[in-house]
Amino acid sequence: MTAPMFAVGQRVRIADRTPPVHHRVPSYAKGRVGVIERICGLHGEPEKFIRGDGEPKQRIYRVRVAQDALWTDYEGIARDKLEIEIFEHWLETVE
Amino acid sequence: MSGHDHDDEHDHDHSRTFQPDHPEPTTDAARVGLALRELLIEAGHYTADEERDVIAAMQGASPENGAKIVARAWTDAVYRERLLANGAEAIRELGFALDPYEFTVMENSDDVHNVIVCTLCSCYPRALLGMSPAWYKSGNYRARVVREPRSVLREFGVELSNDVEVRVHDSTAELRYMVLPQRPVGTDGWTEEQLASLVTRDSLIGTQRELKPD
User: Taking the CB of the first residue and of the last residue of chain B, which one, N or C, has fewer CB atoms within 10 A?
Assistant: First the structure.
């Protein structure tokens, strides 16, 4: 089993790209920075199901992003959060 | 191949032997789906009986399953810890399963309110909680609850003060979610069955916060 590339609490950027196939990253989250909330299991890669079986499987992480980093004029408080599942190959390290 | 005789035009009655509560297909897409089903069954990938069992299990699922899990977590602190740490394993103890999905339970507290959405489509723990409500699948809910969760929650009757943090969980891939609502005050000594009767579908999604021991 592949070791996770990212650790809980690590800052990550969600990749900003749009492959011409079905993928499971909503555009509002692309390019946003958050922290790893938890490390999940290995699952078939959505982009590879268009031809084939999704192999090799990819690690999923839950990424926590501050709401006010997602939306300008966010209505709530600074502690409000969005948490989203992102595959490892969609995550980039942030210095 | 199946053992029965085929008519000349292959217009035998497969289309009328599929699960009887399905409507007759009226669109090309539905006919393609039906043809695919016939081929899969004829090729031995699964049987009509297995399909019936899956449909029955899906139709048997309801928010009452989630309510049982919540009531157990409210009355057994050790179970609650297991449920929050690994939902899939914890619900298996009670006879429930959501495979192949991971099951993740998010706990409400005095300081935190959780709400679930699938912005990309309408992912929902259907095999556990049954069909999702129509609004859960609507573009309105899916687009707005990530962007203005407090306004959307207010429309559902959930007024959150600025002491309470909102956590929106976007179910984008292989995880399925349920909210663990707070146990209402005034329910000391209640049995699990009594407690489960208080839990609503919307409280498991997060569009309801307060449960009332009426």
Answer: C
A28 and B119: CB-CB below 8 Å? yes
Statement to judge: residues B66 and B114 lie in one domain: yes
Q: Which domains does chain A have, with CATH numbers?
A: 11-93 (2.30.30.50)
In what helix (H) or strand (E) does residue B32 lie, and over which residues does it extend? Answer: helix B28-42
In this structure, the answer to whether residues B134 and B55 fall within a common structural domain is: no
With beta carbons under 8 A apart, name residues in chain A contacting B165: 77, 79-81
Domain-embedded: residue B120: yes
- pLDDT of B108-156, one tens digit each? 999 999 999 999 999 999 999 999 999 999 999 999 999 999 999 999 9
Q: How far apart are CA A51 and CA A55, in angstroms?
A: 10
Q: Please give the residue range of the domain that contains residue B35.
A: 28-60
As a whole number, mean pLDDT of residues B86-94 equals 96
The tokens describing A69, both together, are 């980093």
Tell me, what's the pLDDT at A74?
96
**pLDDT level of residue B17 (50, 70, 90 thresholds):** low
- Residues from chain B that touch A83, judged by Cβ atoms under 8 A, are 167-170
The residues in B 28-87 lying below 8 A from A, measured between CB atoms, are none
Nearest alpha carbon to residue A76 among A88, A87, A68, A84: A68
How close does chain A come to B177, measured CA to CA in Å?
Answer: 11
Residue of A nearest to B103 (CA): A40
Q: What distance in Å separates residue B22's CA from the closest CA in chain A?
A: 28
Listed in sequence order, the residues at least 6 apart from B211 whose beta carbon sits closer than 8 Å to its beta carbon are B181, B182, B183, B184, B198, B199, B200, B203
Test mutation, B164, B170, B171, chain A, max A CBs within 10 A: B170
